[in-house]
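User: I'll paste a sequence; please echo it back and then give the predicted structure.

Assistant: Echoing your sequence first, then the prediction.
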Amino acid sequence: MSRQGPRPTPRNQFSFSRVKTFFQCPARYRFRYLKGMKDAFRSIESHLGTAVHDVLEWLYAERREGREHDRDDAAERFTERWRAGWNDEIAVVRIDQRPEDLEVVGRDMVSRFVDGVFARDRSATVALERRVQLRLDDGLVFTGFADRVGRTEGGRLFVVDYKTSKSLGDTSDFSEGLQAPLYAACTLETEADGSALAGYHYLRHDTTRWQQIDGDAAARVISHFTRLAVTADRATDFPTRPGPLCAWCGFNHVCPDARVPDHLAGGRRLAIERSLPRALGDDGRGDPTTAD
């Protein structure tokens, strides 16, 4: 029986992640966005980010309804989301890492966020996980989701994106330079403000970095993203680009050039394990060379 993966992303729709993937590794871009192949695994770091984002969204949604929560509530919510979201597609890439240790890291992040940023925050929430969309040149469309859109007590519009990574960002395109400013540029059009703050909150470091996006800056950001998206859209060659990120790539088991050292082979091993039953048939028998 033929098994189909997810349908390819519509050719003209470009998210920040899609463009970032193309410039990091064109081969991975082709697998995921053009062929519609599904990643063979999700990293535990991705699972951590999803669970933490869920808690922060819940905290602000509850506050908007007049319900406040303390650090214990947030930690309990995180544990629920961590365990409910866990499945056999999640890979511990670093062989010596224990899942329970990263669960503790997540609980600590949301607890400190509640005691610090959330306790001091007097801003109003405009939207959570807001979908932003913008028509670009060449018939392309930008689409994405802003973690939180809000207004300060003084009425100033802002967009913030939450990061659970170990490292702080820099001003490059695929770190701090483009994502939040792009979301802010889109939000300016819907909210009809003259300017907005675009920020990243790094939860492991209890640090928020802001930059102002006015009309001119928004135009520059949109123009720059458009050039990147057009480059990806017009590409006809999709070479591999081996490097440190190969260990976290959900296609590293089918890529002949993937560089995955033994101490970072957790994802690759899981991918191979999960691909064998599909190649052999659900009962584990059959000839893998003839499987659909």
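Residues 31-118+241-280 form one domain. The chain has two domains: 31-118+241-280, 124-234.
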